[in-house]
Specification:
homodimer; 350 residues; alpha/beta; Quinone Oxidoreductase, Chain A, domain 1; Rossmann fold; 2 domains; 18 strands
Chain lengths: 350, 350
């Protein structure tokens, strides 16, 4: 077994604290990654606080993991010692269902093994995430991080990057299209960079007028403040695609109204309360409201290679793990530009 | 001007009564259709009762119109005297916007002229629908009714037919797919016939156990009664496409849950209250909730030709116009198999 230091929530909503545990030995198809950075995703907070139900404690959160390969199993072919590698939101899946066979493992029909807050395929062994010094993972579920990507800025690509990249590709966002990005947070700022890099004319929709300058720096052409009622009227039917990155309650009908004929709004945030969707918002212009959840391993690798090619990565604020509670508070109130990333070196002394 | 007899609602919610009015003279590009049958659509009732707001009175409802061409203008090329012709939900549009140019006039961005309860492009002259003896319409907005289709059964194709055909085509329903049809009424029964004709394995979801035999006769392979909670659990992720024809409040999340990865539910009913859509219903499996509204002229003609080719038309109950109130009551309580059609000959004596 491989001794590992981490930070864990001992019970629902409790403060995270140092936690020592063992990783499994490196199997024939495994890689051992010495974790250097781990992004802080809003879903870490939801799960630590058991806001979605079913949380397992102690919980070591973290699914935006990057580091250096320290050891590889005998049958590993994709990685060598010293490579940069990453782990996203899941570390295994059934590999046999239609979705796994199609490379869309995130929708595994049998048992998706989440990187943390879940169990291995034995349905007993808990999984522990990236707020920790090392991780052992099957090479099929690890990603190559291109060497040109700065490692700490690459970490959030493993969740925020793929979550926004996948729907932009699925709905064929490209040159000359008008794309809206709702909410400029961890997901939204990646959505803006990626959509702009694909040639779209991007508008950011935000409740925070103070984010306009940032939005434009990230690649947005337009910025719309959505505080005043009626803000959407002049824009009705103008957009080809809207990426909705908001988890807080919001009027989805106003954003649906932006869409041209057969345009799509993709939901990547997950508001807790049901969305109130007016039938006419969809029937008018034959619009589509779609959900999207991260992406498969193949597409995640494609996204990482694309980001390296385009020189895209996440804007991050590096923190020691000891500041995690403050980072959670600031994330909840949207006070981060645009992703906290834990410098895992800070765990060494714990 | 062309003298016309009709049935009209004089005010919101009042009983329909005989009403005489003039149709415009036949212009160079117009056809005069002697109406023989007109279908009774649930939206006639909504509009007569001003349930969607903005109704114009007196209102002559009816947008599932078929009859015989009695006269054609000098420049008409698509029709000759004696042809069977039909009129659907609209009789004109701007012809210049992107949607009109794409042949999707139903989504006209400037002025869709509805067959009734609207105004002509002068924004003054009211339009009157098919509960009447004749109609004058620009040939570009009239449909050819293939002679092999029984005329009275063809009438509902102009709304119920195209409304279900368009999303089945848009979402590429075909051989071997599993398709659900929710609600077995005017729309649903066409959805079953059309989806089955395209090679899909069709399941009808209904609150009425008594409709099973009919569903199977119409072409369904399976029938699921949706009264008991939990009915959907065993079917999760099994369906490629769901056509939701229900206007009454219903649990959309249960139906979304039926969909496989990237499967779509198309909404063609229009519930008055917003649908409560759980974000996870969409995010799981990357599902899509789409709206769809009738169809363009080109696709409506394609649908009519397709129906003629496949021998598909609507199951109807023929009524004299004098029984319209009873037909409305029975439509509202779902007591019709599956569409009332007015025999316009009954207007002759009024």
């Amino acid at each position: 077994m491989i001794k590992t230091k981490g930070y864990a929530a001992p019970t629902a909503g409790a403060r995270l604290e140092p936690f020592s545990f063992d990783r499994r030995d490196v199997g024939a198809r495994d890689v051992l990654i010495e974790i250097q950075y781990c992004g802080v995703c809003h879903s870490d907070i939801h799960q630590v606080r058991d806001e979605w139900g079913g949380s397992i404690y102690p919980m070591v959160p973290g699914h935006e993991i990057v580091g250096r390969v320290a050891r590889v199993g005998a049958e590993v072919s994709k990685f060598a010692e010293g490579d940069h590698a990453g782990v996203g939101c899941f570390v295994d899946s059934c590999r046999t269902c239609r979705n796994c066979r199609d490379g869309e493992e995130q929708y595994c029909e049998n048992h998706l093994v989440p990187t943390y807050n879940g169990t291995e395929k034995d349905e007993k062994t808990p999984t522990y995430g990236g707020y920790s010094t090392r991780i052992v993972v099957d090479e099929d579920y690890a990603l190559r991080i291109p060497s040109s990507l700065p490692l700490q800025n690459a970490a959030p690509l493993l969740c925020a990057g793929i979550t926004t990249y996948a729907p932009l590709r699925r709905f064929k966002v490209g040159e000359g299209q008008r794309v809206g990005v709702v909410g400029l947070g961890g997901l939204g700022h990646m959505g803006v960079k990626l959509a702009a890099s694909m040639g779209a004319r991007v508008t950011v929709f935000s409740t925070s007028p103070g984010k306009e300058q940032d939005a434009r720096k990230l690649g947005a052409d337009d910025f719309v403040v959505t505080r005043e009622p009626g803000w959407s009227e002049a824009l009705a039917g103008r957009y080809d695609f809207v990426l909705d990155c908001v988890s807080a309650p919001h009027d989805i009908n106003a954003y649906l109204g932006l869409l041209r004929r057969e345009g799509a709004l993709a939901l990547v945030g997950a508001p807790e309360k049901p969305l109130e969707v007016a039938a006419f918002s969809l029937i008018t212009n034959g619009r589509t409201l779609a959900g999207s959840m991260i992406g498969g391993i193949r597409e995640t690798q494609e996204m990482l290679d694309y980001c390296a090619d385009k020189g895209i990565s996440s804007d991050v604020e590096l923190i020691p793990v000891q500041k995690i509670e403050e980072a959670y508070e600031r994330t909840v109130r949207g006070d981060v530009r645009y992703r906290f990333v834990i410098d895992v070196a800070s765990l060494k002394g714990e």
